[in-house]
Amino acid sequence: xxxxxxxxxxxxxxxxxxxxxxxxxxxxxxxxxxxxxxxxxxxxxxxxxxxxxxxxxxxxxxxxxxxxxxxxxxxxxxxxxxxxxxxxxxxxxxxxxxxxxxxxxxxxxxxxxxxxxxxxxxxxxxxxxxxxxxxxxxxxxxxxxxxxxxxxxxxxxxxxxxxxxxxxxxxxxxxxxxxxxxxxxxxxxxxxxxxxxxxxxxxxxxxxxxxxxxxxxxxxxxxxxxxxxxxxxxxxxxxxxxxxxxxxxxxxxxxxxxxxxxxxxxxxxxxxxxxxxxxxxxxxxxxxxxxxxxxxxxxxxxxxxxxxxxxxxxxxxxxxxxxxxxxxxxxxxxxxxxxxxxxxxxxxxxxxxxxxxxxxxxxxxxxxxxxxxxxxxxxxxxxxxxxxxxxxxxxxxxxxxxxxxxxxxxxxxxxxxxxxxxxxxxxxxxxxxxxxxxxxxxxxxxxxxxxxxxxxxxxxxxxxxxxxxxxxxxxxxxxxxxxxxxxxxxxxxxxxxxxxxxxxxxxxxxxxxxxxxxxxxxxxxxxxxxxxxxxxxxxxxxxxxxxxxxxxxxxxxxxxxxxxxxxxxxxxxxxxxxxxxxxxxxxxxxxxxxxxxxxxxxxxxxxxxxxxxxxxxxxxxxxxxxxxxxxxxxxxxxxxxxxxxxxxxxxxxxxxxxxxxxxxxxxxxxxxxxxxxxxxxxxxxxxxxxxxxxxxxxxxxxxxxxxxxxxxxxxxxxxxxxxxxxxxxxxxxxxxxxxxxxxxxxxxxxxxxxxxxxxxxxxxxxxxxxxxxxxxxxxxxxxxxxxxxxxxxxxxxxxxxxxxxxxxxxxxxxxxxxxxxxxxxxxxxxxxxxxxxxxxxxxxxxxxxxxxxxxxxxxxxxxxxxxxxxxxxxxxxxxxxxxxxxxxxxxxxxxxxxxxxxxxxxxxxxxxxxxxxxxxxxxxxxxxxxxxxxxxxxxxxxxxxxxxxxxxxxxx
Length: 956
Prior knowledge:
By secondary structure, the protein is an alpha+beta fold. It contains 28 helices and 32 strands. The two termini are 33 Å apart. Helices cover 34% and strands 17% of the residues.
């Protein structure tokens, strides 16, 4: 690779052409112009240029790490298969290994073993069975102490006749064993605080006398545990980097350390030469109140979570304990008389900020001077901490930024005109305003609450306005889509048609939504949109099916408004965002702003100065700062609520539940740490039964060849798959108990396809590459056994990193074809078929409906197949208004449905179709399983998931 020789530039290029384009754009040779520059500015520039030439130890005189093959910290390297991408690394914060005292090690020095424990040491458990039982009862089944005791009593009673020893005598012994685990042990601590300001002489509000307890764990020790995890060692970034596509030298953003914020922080930190060679560890925080029970009294909790920016987004999103509960913040409660007073509001805000500052104070020394921590690969590194992005919804954001509700927390746009261009807020600017203006002017002119000290004020390099993370869930999905646009459609219809007719139209929209064909993982809306409590998952599900449901009932401008918003949402949720994607995102924002004007022109809404909608404008800049937003969304912390707050609460006896919840979380962390340790030492391979049988030298017959998950095809869920990213897509028939043997003639009768045997013979000739040159009569064609094996589903495994997937980005879904799904109506899914792998998107794909999955044997070879009905594309590009391709059932020249048999290897994945309803009202009797048989044209639903969106968007 070729370096840029411009002083201070650290870019590397695959070839001279890329270097030449870079120099012409970023370092052009301009005609000399005489400009007067102050002496101080010249000196400052020179100093900056000189400093940028400082290289870490071991880079040689040339400064080229590639000149030294022993260098373990190159400034640039290729990544990924086929050298498609390369990373430029920060030159100073290089994550160089050191010993436990902080002395740098020579390149290639081996790491010390993480543990000296033997592969058969199950401490503190006596055996694998004891650990697996504790983990099953406490983590997986979440069994209560009473039920654990009952189970152990029955189990122990069964051992009396054989003289066996009980594994645990009771739940207390099991809890004590778990608690003795040293791994993952970060103790809970408590501090108390109370109001210390002025008090009225009489009628003192109760909150002024109350004491507030805050429970927390040392964030430094939590980070130490996180960095030392071996299962994170291959999914952690030690250095800030910039990622580029090799062919075009265009930049792209994915994980947090690829963003500009981490790089700029490293620039600032490395001004101190003592930090060179260290690893920058950004601290990502998130908080949000959550309700655990409506039926009991005190039911609100205020958890605080922590993650680190070095962990890649796929780990943070994959529910692998990349986000850790570190505190329960206090929630001051007050009666209505005092809750709205300025004094109580000020105290509540300051309590929040003061609590955060205290909890994080043990990180402060490590923000300016490196400390030594061990990483999951066994090496020690010097570490520098820094406060990173804060994950929060809008209500939490205004609390964090000390901003008045209704204002933007990121920029200085006026509250009444949020979409006007404005400068970004900054810590320095806010502090200057606070010194200059009184509290009223600060609030009215700048939206600043000037009498609160943000928790970031005492930490170096921390600007709370910059650190507010994008929030796709609340800003876009629940906010702009559900709370704004969906509600506006209802208001628009009532304004245009009157209440009675509008209600009739809304009922028809609900019937359209309810009649959508089933799809793996798609939430059903049997009654349409009308239910009381909406969750984020409900809103996500509605986004997938809403656009075709309103078409024909609303003007095209509203349809295009929804299309622009949906495309924006799916673009910003991609796991990798390129420079081209950023251009497309900005185009979607512009189209959204253009088409939404119909709501203003019709009088449906009076203003678009809505903070959550306005936030869309900042996404391109936030992506450049922090990488792909899907790694910082509140959906991550909200899902953590279930594991860390709601499930532990349900396991308590409701008597002072918080203390019990703390212990439950600590036990969960210890069990998870033990499982990771045992797995790393190879002690959890196979099942507990096979391991025990092998221990007793008994031959075990275990069906280990079956692909994981293929026996779960009776569940209507997709799943993340932790396997290597070795294939783009693969489909195979599911191994399921619903498999049965019949004759081909019987299948033909079931499907009412009397010519099915002929179709199968044609398929077999095509498979044998003999069809085109065959002049033989039918009896001489290749034969097959009359018995065939029919299954009800096929499993599609494909690379879908933007959806919920495994660490390698792999995802499994099921394509179903059965005459009775879950003892109910028939279900025959649709799928994409590869017809030309050389073309992109829909130009190389076709749509089929699966009528049956089966396999048969011919000449000792098994053929897994599908009977399909073909669809034809309508037009050579997607629909202008919805952005979706249109298909219709294909027919032969004799006007018969076009039926074929295809090999399952040609299937790509499941497809979801939604009818073109137009203005046609939907019958109340139409059910989801009728959908594909009741309409003549369909949209290919590109919004069913992110993989489908990317697949179908590649066509144009």
